[in-house]
Amino acid sequence: MARLIGRKVALSRREGVNLHLKGGKWESVDFGGEKPPGVHADRRPRQTDYGVHLREKQKCKRWYGVLERQFRRYFETALAMPGNTGQNLLILLEGRLDNVIYRLGFASTRTFARQMIVHRHVLVDGKRVTIPSWAVKPGMKIEFAAREASQKLGKTGLDLPKTDSLPSWLQRTDSPMGGVVVSKPTREEVSIAIKEQLIVELCSK
């Protein structure tokens, strides 16, 4: 199963924004004024128009923890949907199960949420789901398995430091511990500042 590996702090430095890939003490770091990683960061040339478009795409991919091939599939799906392609793309990515676990507050990072799912701690409508990219729909109930290890993991996740607030399209529940998808994700509540039109222009070439 494909996943982002390597120095996660370096990815946030490269994009100039906190991608919330690390958790812990890094949650409060802005990264806006940080230099890009690499010994030649000060001598890098001025960014081209293509470079600006590419950075928006890379930022989006790394924010949601998807690789190029999977991101392309999301884009093709968004392109076939009615409405604004860029907004459709972000809504599809927001609807991933690992992102939902993160936005519900049970994980400090999407990587941690992904691990919870793969390790069989999460149920969707009473059925065990082990696919982090599972697309949630309005009305679906997400909860942690009844076993002690799963319940403890969910409670531990709630106590971890995080910056994202609970969006209005999700509702957290205490009994059973989990949440409900109230409605479809909205573009307004995507918590990263991103110019999706630049991604559409790049991927459409």
Task: Put the structure in a nutshell.
This protein is α+β, with helices and mostly antiparallel strands.
Walkthrough of the structure:
By secondary structure, the protein is α+β, with helices and mostly antiparallel strands. It has two domains: about 10-95 and about 190-205, Ribosomal protein S4/S9, N-terminal domain (Ribosomal Protein S4 Delta 41, Chain A, domain 1, Orthogonal Bundle), CATH 1.10.1050.10; about 95-185, Structural Genomics Hypothetical 15.5 Kd Protein In mrcA-pckA Intergenic Region, Chain A (Roll). It is built from eight helices and five strands; from the N terminus they run ααααααβββαββα. The chain has helices at about 10-15, 50-65, 70-80, 85-95, 95-105, 110-120, 150-160, 195-205; strands at about 120-125, 125-130, 140-145, 170-175, 180. It has a five-stranded antiparallel β-sheet. A hairpin with a 4-residue loop joins β4 and β5 (about 180). The longest helix is centred in the first third of the chain and has 16 residues, at about 50-65. It is globular and about 55 Å long.
Topology summary:
Elements lengths: L7 H8 L33 H16 L3 H13 L4 H10 L2 H7 L6 H9 L3 E3 L2 E2 L12 E4 L3 H12 L10 E4 L4 E4 L14 H8 L2
Antiparallel strand pairs: 1-2, 1-3, 3-5, 4-5
Helix pairs in contact: 2-8, 3-4, 4-8, 5-6
Which terms would index this structure?
205 residues, alpha+beta, Ribosomal Protein S4 Delta 41, Chain A, domain 1, Structural Genomics Hypothetical 15.5 Kd Protein In mrcA-pckA Intergenic Region, Chain A, five-stranded antiparallel β-sheet, 8 helices, globular
